[in-house]
Amino acid sequence: MNWKTDLRASDLDADMRLELTCRLCGAVRSLPAEAILARRGGAMLYLDQVEARARCRQRGCNGPMRLALLRTGDASGFVGGIA
Ligand SMILES: [Zn+2]
Fold it and tell me: 19-50 as b/e, with b when 16 or more CB fall inside 10 Å?
């Protein structure tokens, strides 16, 4: 068990952002919680189901995606040293 099997799309807070990374080509795309909730039955999906259904959108790739959960609240407090 982990957060992906514990959390449903409807449990996500507004300051949470999901990010999908392709396991094959490394392409990253963000997945707003609203995008999941907008689908029919999307609010009932556990995040591991969301991950299992996600496929890379890069042309010709269609690889499986790894799901990460980001808190935008934390990111806003981060002062980067990478200039
Ligand atoms: Zn890919």
Answer: ebbbeeeeeeeebebeebeeeeebeebbbbbb
